[in-house]
């Protein structure tokens, strides 16, 4: 009994209903798992973020104080006493409030000063440090360069600095250098390079600091600081021999070298305001270098200006000029940043002592833990394995939650496109319905055409003739070679012979038996058939064939089959278990078997 479409649909729906309960439970379980994992991961993230944020807040609160204390510790390593450190810290904070920056940077600059100038006492280190910082700000130089410059200048003018007082001398030096940068075409870096090149040669010759600075400053109007120092050094080296060659005296009664203005005045008295080629050669021979002649030519043109600059620099006693220039280099926002840093440093220094106590205990605990690890390494190895496993599992669960969330977002994002697809399918369904109606109309039109029925009749005739071929040979064999049988066969052949040509022609045109080696042909064929040939050779009706109908007759052979129990084979496919809540009868069993087999 064939199953109807409705029965198959009911069977499929029953299977789906039985599975949907378990699928729904599975989906609910997965949903609860996802919600639990998401909640736990969120809690872990929030807790970790809170702990990290708290630690970061505390660290940011005391960071300026930690930085300042570290800088003070670096300076203390150079055997600076406590009172000097206190003075340095106070001056560094005052500098940061006044000119911006951080107090820690100011303190670190003192490390190089203390290394270059040994024996600084009391507030001397703070004075050197603050003066260097102010000069660096005033001359647009970096603190490291100015600090090195201060060390170099102290080495050159050590005796003068010690006699005057180091703190007072360094403030005077900062003021004079700031003025030189303002008056001459130079910078703090170039001035440092100039004094580095000349070294202590001018000081050894008894030349005052303000004169050296004026000469080097005026030379830098046409050259760099290092070149200016080199030319000045060459001039000083040739003065002793030059006075003999030129017949001029460049020293006073005590044998000390005259000032640069006096030497230039005496050269002008001998050669005039301008130097000819021969006179330049004479000067080169006297001083021994082109560098010295270049210095004389440049300064000889403005000896009055040189004298004025020397006098101006000599009048500077403090660093007011440097402070004024530095203040103009600083805006209110820089000062505000410095003030905030100072307040944070001072407040953090108050908080650090108790925090350091707690930190010390934590360090002790960690040290004890490190000793335990050394004592029982295998135990801590397994603890480490468990920790790694826990973190890994947490990561996997977090990944599960992430993937689930991505899937949900993807479904949300696909909601719009899926609606469009549904609309498209609805339109397609309507179009399909219209197409089906059109097809029905086309079929009706074709069936209403008389030509259609002619073609169908021809095709039916072809089908009937084709079926005749199946039993023709069997019928001819069953009749035997009797006279009346042969007469009957010949009569049948004569009747159907006219249809042979039409059959073969239609079969050839329509390709009904194309490619078949045993295509059937109309019985009663003659050797001289019409010109239309079949697609394959037609076997002769007289050829020996196996009879389709048994010689004893269909009924007799059927009786033999039933008497023997049939010739079919039995195949075991296993055990079929059918469960039902109704009493099992023959009709119900048949229905269940048909549903299972369908």
From TrEMBL:
InterPro entries per UniProt: Phage_tape_meas
Keyword Endoplasmic reticulum recorded: no
Pfam families in the cross-refs: PhageMin_Tail (PF10145)
Record key words, sorted: Membrane, Transmembrane, Transmembrane helix, Viral release from host cell
Name this protein carries in UniProt: Phage tail tape measure protein, TP901 family
Coiled-coil regions listed: none
Secretion signal span: none
Transmembrane domains' residue ranges: 379-403, 409-428, 440-463, 483-503
Family annotation (PANTHER family): FELS-2 PROPHAGE PROTEIN
Organism: Nitratidesulfovibrio vulgaris (strain DP4) (Desulfovibrio vulgaris)
Phage tail tape measure protein domain boundaries: 91-288
């Amino acid at each position: 009994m064939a199953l109807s479409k409705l029965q198959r649909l009911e069977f499929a729906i029953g299977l789906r209903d039985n599975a949907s309960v378990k699928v729904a439970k599975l989906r609910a379980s997965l949903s609860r798992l996802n919600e639990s994992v998401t909640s736990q991961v969120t809690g872990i993230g929030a807790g970790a973020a809170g702990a990290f944020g708290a630690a970061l807040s505390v660290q940011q609160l005391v960071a300026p104080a930690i930085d300042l204390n570290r800088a003070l510790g670096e300076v203390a390593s150079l055997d600076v006493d406590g009172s000097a450190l206190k003075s340095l810290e106070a001056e560094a904070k005052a500098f940061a409030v006044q000119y911006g920056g951080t107090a820690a940077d100011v303190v670190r600059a003192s490390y190089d000063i203390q290394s270059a100038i040994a024996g600084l006492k009391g507030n001397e280190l703070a004075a050197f440090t603050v003066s260097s910082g102010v000069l660096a700000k005033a001359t647009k130089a970096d603190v490291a360069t100015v600090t090195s410059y201060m060390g170099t200048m102290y080495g050159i003018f050590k005796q003068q600095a010690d006699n005057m007082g180091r703190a007072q001398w360094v403030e005077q030096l900062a003021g004079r250098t700031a003025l030189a940068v303002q008056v001459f075409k130079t910078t703090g870096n170039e001035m440092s390079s100039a004094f580095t090149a000349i070294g202590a040669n001018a000081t050894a010759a008894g030349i005052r600091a303000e004169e050296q600075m004026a000469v080097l400053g005026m030379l830098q109007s046409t050259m760099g600081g290092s070149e200016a120092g080199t030319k000045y050094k060459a001039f000083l080296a040739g003065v002793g021999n030059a006075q003999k060659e030129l017949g001029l005296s460049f020293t006073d009664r005590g044998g000390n070298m005259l000032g640069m203005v006096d030497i230039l005045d005496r050269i002008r008295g001998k050669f005039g305001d301008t130097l000819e080629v021969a006179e330049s050669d004479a000067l080169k021979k006297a001083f021994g270098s082109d560098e010295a002649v270049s210095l004389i030519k440049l300064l000889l043109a403005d000896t009055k200006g040189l004298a004025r600059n020397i006098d101006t620099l000599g009048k500077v006693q403090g660093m007011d000029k440097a402070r004024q220039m530095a203040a103009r280099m600083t805006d209110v926002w820089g000062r505000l940043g410095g003030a905030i840093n100072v307040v944070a440093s001072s407040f953090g220094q108050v908080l650090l002592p108790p925090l350091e106590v707690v930190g010390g205990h934590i360090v002790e605990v960690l040290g004890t833990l490190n000793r335990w690890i050394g004592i029982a390494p295998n135990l801590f190895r397994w603890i480490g394995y468990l920790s790694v496993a826990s973190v890994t599992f947490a990561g996997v669960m977090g990944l599960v939650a992430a993937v689930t969330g991505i899937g949900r977002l993807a479904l949300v994002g696909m909601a719009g496109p899926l609606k469009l697809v549904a609309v498209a399918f609805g339109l397609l369904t309507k179009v399909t319905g219209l197409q089906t109606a059109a097809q029905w109309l086309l079929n009706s039109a074709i069936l209403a055409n008389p030509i259609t029925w002619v073609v169908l009749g021809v095709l039916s005739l072809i089908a009937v003739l084709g079926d005749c071929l199946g039993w023709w040979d069997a019928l001819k064999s069953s009749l035997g070679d009797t006279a009346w049988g042969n007469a009957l066969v010949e009569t049948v052949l004569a009747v159907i012979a006219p249809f042979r040509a039409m059959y073969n022609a239609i079969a050839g045109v329509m390709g009904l038996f194309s490619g078949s080696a045993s295509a059937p042909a109309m019985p009663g064929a003659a050797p001289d058939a019409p010109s239309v040939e079949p697609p394959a050779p037609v076997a002769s009706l007289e050829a020996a064939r196996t009879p389709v109908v048994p010689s004893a007759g269909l009924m007799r052979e059927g009786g033999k089959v039933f008497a023997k129990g049939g010739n079919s084979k039995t195949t075991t496919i296993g055990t079929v278990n059918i469960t039902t809540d109704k009493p099992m009868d023959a009709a119900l069993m048949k229905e269940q078997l048909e549903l299972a087999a369908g």
